[in-house]
Write a structure and sequence with these properties.
GMP Synthetase, Chain A, domain 3; 8-stranded antiparallel β-sheet; alpha+beta; globular
Length: 365
Amino acid sequence: MNKVMNIKKLTITAVIALIAVLISLGGGQLLAGPPDVPPGLEIAMEVQEAHTPSLMENPDVVGTAVGLDEFGEPVIQVFTSSEGVRGIPRNIEGFQVDVKVTGPIVAYKGKPSSGVSHKSKQATPIQLGTSGGWRYDLANGYCCSGTLGSLVTDGTNQYILSNWHVLYSDIVNGGNGRTAQTGDPVIQPGLIDISCNSNNAQNVAALVSGGGSLPNSNVDAGIAAVIPGMVMSDGAILEIGTISSSTVAASISQAVKKSGRTTGLSRSSISGLNATVNITYDNECAGGTAFTKTFTGQIVIKNSRCGFLNGGDSGSLMVQDVTTNPRAVGLLYAGSWTCSRSAVAIANPINDVLDYFGVTMVGNP
């Protein structure tokens, strides 16, 4: 315990020293990519992981993560479904516990942005960061929409990247009628934005075998093969433009942005890493019976009043908040049920998603 406390107290000094070295080596600019996780933060993650199972035995605890306090010290974050949850320690092995009332965390495929419409039917080839989804939601009695987030490639073919629960959910859960099948169309816009009439949509991609990730993976991701001529081949995203083909790991306080169906272009910052979270998939838009799935190693983003991510934004790509060639950081898929000041958004680390499908981002070198 004393060792943990000593290393913890050195965190700020270590980070400052590391930044100074990087600036020196980079000729006055930080080298590409964020620095390695500081020692204190890495130890906090180990402590968090060790105590997460017991913390989440409390039914009112919906997740944990590691973040930094106002002094730059590592803290263990505990997410609760309501105020006043009892039985949560104030300190764990020398690390302060920061309780955040996030409410239940749910998958964000939803029903009803900026000066640019992310819900309208686009002229082809379309840009991404737009409303879309599986054409046959209506067969199951649902009329929903998510976001067609970005473009990826396996070196030969291009695919739209979104979430499993936007593109493929009914493959597993069955719904009330027709299940998703290989070759089924992915449409733009999504059904909720065209008065639930699929005849008003355009087919932009097709579901592929093995293109959905749940329920047994640690990512909520889906890909669909682009129909030639229907999507801009450079992967341009509405209000963001063409991104970089490289990616970057998430870091605490990192500035990020996304382009999505509901809230359009929005900005925030990363508040937690290494999160273990319980995500609820309801039966309104996920298809079939409601269920809860636990994800580990996730990214937590500030989402006050759901201004960064809201229902229908699932599938959006989260990138660096820079003007030119931003690099992808994560794939957004869930957030707080209650849009309070302490609401959060959740993203899969982008490299976990790309590795799952064996693809890379489409973008500038």
